[in-house]
Design brief:
The chain has helices at residues 4-43, 50-57, 61-68, 71-89, 102-119, 121-130, 136-157, 168-189, 200-218, and strands at residues 191-192, 195-196. With 219 residues, it is an all-alpha fold. Helix 1 (4-43) crosses helix 6 (121-130), helix 5 runs parallel beside helix 8 and helix 6 (121-130) crosses helix 7 (136-157). The chain is globular and about 55 Å long. The protein starts with a helix and ends with a helix.
Length: 219
């Protein structure tokens, strides 16, 4: 029979080993999701597959099946990660502004979304796919982003209410659509409908126009 000291050693080893495995799995999952996002951003869905992601992540492809159940599960994980994208890129604070009206809030969100989209190639691809690829995978990613933005707005608005008679859903959809088209056009050709979008001064002009549009509706 094992003495008490030996039993204690075995119990301690058994208690710490699962923690080590959990840490290793967590790191591997992060590496897989990061590799998948980078692959999507660079090459799109055309070359997006289990083997390609595994090579990029430096892991056995069986781990992707084990952790995510396959490619669809991995896309779901990327979609969930988009919620963190909104949290990281669009902070839930006023940024020095006094949010006294719904217009203040929408100005803040519009400018943050413009900046975040400009800086993220994967999110730009997702936006482009929304209007060019009607696939289940694209729908999942688009819905995850839209849901996260809607939740941000709900949390931040508090008691702020838009002006009466304004169709908020329609107006906000047009605001976000204009931002998205502006950023995609700039990435493709450095301009949009004759508006140059190549340097900081150009983008300041665009941001000023965006604020005027938002204020024109919401005051």
């Amino acid at each position: 029979m094992l003495n008490e000291t030996a039993m204690a050693v075995l119990e301690q080893a058994g208690a710490t080993e699962p923690e080590k495995r959990i840490r290793d799995r967590s790191a591997t999952e992060r590496a897989i999701v990061k590799a998948a996002k980078n692959l999507l951003a660079e090459e799109g869905f055309q070359n997006f597959g289990i083997n390609a992601v595994a090579r990029r992540a430096g892991c056995d492809k069986q781990l992707i099946y084990r952790y995510y159940g396959g490619l669809n599960g991995l896309v779901e994980a990327i979609g969930a990660d988009l919620g963190n994208w909104v949290k990281d890129r669009i902070p839930e604070d006023a940024g020095g502004m006094f949010l006294l009206t719904y217009g203040d809030l929408m100005e803040r969100l519009s400018l943050l979304f413009l900046e975040a989209l400009r800086e993220d190639p994967l999110m730009r691809r997702i936006v482009a796919w929304e209007v060019s690829e009607n696939t289940e995978q694209v729908k999942r990613l688009s819905e995850a982003r839209s849901k996260a933005l809607g939740q941000w707005l709900d949390r931040m608005r508090g008691s702020l209410a838009p002006p009466k008679g304004v169709d908020v859903a329609a107006v906000n959809a047009l605001i976000f659509a204009s931002i998205q088209h502006l950023v995609l056009a700039a990435a493709a050709g450095g301009q949009c409908a004759g508006l140059a979008l190549k340097n900081g001064k150009d983008w300041e002009k665009a941001a000023t126009a965006l604020k005027r549009l938002v204020r024109g509706v919401y005051g």
